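Final report, Chapter 2: Outcomes

The project's central promise was a pipeline that accepts a single protein chain and returns its three-dimensional structure in a standardized token representation, suitable for archiving and comparison. That pipeline is now operational. To close this chapter, we reproduce one record exactly as it appears in the project archive, with the input sequence first and the structure output second.
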Amino acid sequence: MTTLVVLSVILIALLIAGLALYLYIVGTQLTRVAGLLEDCAELVWKIKRDADVIEPGLERINNTGGVIAGALPLLYGMAEGIVIGATYEPEPEGHERPPAMPAMGHRRSRLHEGVGYHPEPL
């Protein structure tokens, strides 16, 4: 019977040691989580302070967004008209294109005027 008592005492001591180790590990993790939560709370308060500055302008931002959303159908219709007018239509066969001409005739450089030189007009 003494062997049974000794083994019981050893098992109880191991159980208590295991529970103590478990509680130490859990306590350490909870301490770390508490520190992280404190840092998160500081960030949340910082975000709230930044949001308090933005809040008065939200009404104007929402009104502007409503105006833009109301104009979208009109803009879409105008874009459709532009696309239809700019759609490529191939030229009929046998039609010869003339050579491309400059849009404004003779090109005039303004670099001369920048340094005070005024050449005679062509």
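Archive annotation: The first helix runs from residue 2 to 54.
This record, like all others produced under the grant, will remain available to the consortium after the project formally closes.
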